Amino acid sequence: MKLKKIATAMIFATTFVAGCSSDDSSTETLVTFHKPKADYKFNDFELAELLSERAYLLVGILTYNGKSYHAIYGQGIADNMLVMFENRNDKSDRISMLIPIQPTDSSYCELLGENSSTSFNCKITNVISEDEHMRTYQATSTSGSESFTLEVSEYLSYMGSTAFELIDNGSSQYVIKTLSPFSKYGYNDTDLAFSSYVELSAILTRVGKGNDISLTFDNPISGSSDDDINMYTGLMIRDYGLSTHISKSGSVFSGGTDLFSAGVKRTIELRDEQLSVEQNKQIGVHSWSEDNDQGEEVDATDIPYTDVSHRKQATYFTKMLGDDGLGFYMFTIKSAPADGEHYMTKDELNKYQLVTEIN
Predict the structure, then answer these.
(1) Is 176 within 8 Å of 159 (Cβ atoms)?
(2) Which residues contact 270 (CB under 8 A, 6 or more apart)?
(3) Backbone torsions φ then ψ of 280, nearest 5 degrees
């Protein structure tokens, strides 16, 4: 399960200028606020800075069989990073690999196939160089017949793993469907982050504004591993006037719900009409958390509402849901702790106008 804020707080806070550790939250005040103000100014300069920082950190380069590949998707799977690499000269040539987040004396990389996988030694002794956030492996398969060189960022599990498929229905009507690039290996849940913004931005730039575009969540979206980028993805969705839809096979949780809220129209197709909305578990929310200066995890409800992270979320949901936005945000952080989950009922969806139609 992805936590809504903790990944960004732990991984990016010391490097990224914008985000959860902004100076905006450090000003002391004698006034107690019971709700955050929706006064954050999202801007193009901050977006450009965030994208530049992520592009610098989220790097993976694989040299295998004389070909060069670069990382395009990444997510965390237990103690590993699940990463997809794409041939720089042939976009149809892709390789997926499980890579240890931290190598040990007995760790392996697994080059995945549809029916089998090939194990490579990715032990501490296979690391030939380390520099800041990058690590380079010279790895040989356990059979000794193959080898590769891998230069990989330790942050690739926060790159994002949701892929998007554009369907042109003619007459300026388009559907963009989410999907898992790793589904053929049995990994169907995906998350949202840097790669999601980059890919969706390229699609929307190609389609252009003024068209009828729907974003369909067609697989389980387990959350966002980078909320700062995810909010800008939502702002882009609203700017292009997209509708959002959750199909029978899809669901959204945490940052996925944030992105669903960006649609000008927001519809859901229940997986099982015999079950209640919450029993279908297709729209989920929870709180977020951050580490304090002592390294202790603090839930959002215990962080002052003057904190910039609260103000960003309050502003984002006010833009998406109008007068219901701030109430919805307060509902999410009180619905379940950061390591918990709450699936919304029909009454809750109606109260905050999160869904405009249930099919």
Answers:
(1) no
(2) 248, 277, 280, 282, 358, 359
(3) -75, -20
Element housing 177 (H / E): strand 173-179
* pTM of structure: 0.89
- CA dist 168 and 176 (Å) reads 9
CB-based burial label for 299 (10 Å; 0-12, 13-18, 19+): middle
Is residue 283 within 8 A of residue 256, CB to CB? The reply is: no
Per-residue pLDDT of the chain (359 residues; tens, 9 = 90+): 334 443 443 344 433 333 333 334 444 443 455 889 999 999 999 999 999 999 999 999 999 999 999 999 999 999 999 999 999 999 999 999 999 999 999 999 999 987 889 999 999 999 999 988 899 999 999 988 899 999 999 999 999 999 999 999 988 899 999 999 999 999 999 999 999 999 999 999 999 998 999 999 999 999 999 999 999 999 999 999 999 999 999 999 999 999 999 999 999 999 999 999 999 999 999 999 988 888 888 999 999 999 999 999 999 999 999 999 999 999 999 999 999 999 999 999 999 999 999 98
> What does the DSSP 8-state code read for residue 33?
P
Establish how many alpha carbons lie within 13 A of residue 47's alpha carbon, considering only the half-sphere containing its beta carbon: 14
Which sign does the torsion angle of CA 319, 19, 57, 333 carry? negative
Report d(CA 333, CA 342) in Å as an integer.
10
Q: Which of 280, 214, 285, 279 is nearest to 248 (CA)?
A: 280
Token duo for residue 289 = 């958390």
Q: For residues 199 and 178, what is the distance between their CA atoms, to the nearest angstrom?
A: 11
Instruction: Confirm if 261 and 235 have CB atoms less than 8 A apart.
Output: no
Residue written as tokens 């909010």?
A: 231
Strands 297-299, 243-246: parallel, antiparallel or unpaired by DSSP?
unpaired
Pair 311, 228: CB distance under 8 Å: no
Question: Residue 292: what are its φ and ψ, rounded to 5°?
Answer: -85, -175
State the CB neighbour count (10 A cutoff) for residue 358.
14
Task: Give me 295's structure tokens.
Answer: 């390294």
Which residue in 159, 143, 198 sits closest to 76, CA to CA? 159
